[in-house]
Specification:
By secondary structure, this protein is an all-alpha fold. The chain has helices at 2-5, 10-31, 38-47, 61-85, 89-98, 102-115, 118-123, 129-132, 134-139, 144-171, 173-222. The protein has eleven helices and no strands. The chain is globular and about 65 Å long.
Amino acid sequence: MGAVLGENGPMSSFVQHFGYFALFLLAIAESALIPIPSEVTFGFAGALATTAVTGHAQFSIIGVIVVGVIGSLIGSVIAYEIGRTLGRTIVDRWGKWILLTHGDLDAAERWFKRYGAASVLIGRILPVVRTVISLPAGVAEMKRGPFAILTIIGSAIWITLLTTLGYAAGSNWTRVSHDFHLMQNPMIVIIVLALAWGFWHRVRAVRKYHAGQSTNRGRHAKQ
């Protein structure tokens, strides 16, 4: 099962050793602007709810979903309150280190203004977007009650999907393992190249943005 869900990886080992506590912390972090792949966390937890991985069920599906939703809510509230109290100060101070620009916040705020509260619900079930959607909701000062309710609903949908898919993969481990080993190396190469390209593209975009900002400030200073 390790080949499919990264059983030997640091995050998966963390989940195996610390159980629900690990799931809780990872859910908080992933919803509080830290790009941790919930696909791996809860997919692996779903597989550990079967007896196919370790010979016994380490989790229950309901337990994984409940802990994941609570952790996601706490992390989302943290990101929301950061956005509500600090707003763009985060980007001003640490944007170049966390690869965020004011342009990113502008795009997120346009999305939020266009789709309103629904953007929180939809954003919670979209990879990547789910990690940052709480920040513009806080900047826009969305009411806390509706924000919490929509976050819970969206997180429950996403975590339930991942957990049940992981459970299905664990239950059919023999077939999944065989198929995966046939294409494991090409998949690893493709994933690594895709991540490297995405990171490089992101770094270039951030540098270009800051260079443009510096140029504009220089022009204004001359005037």
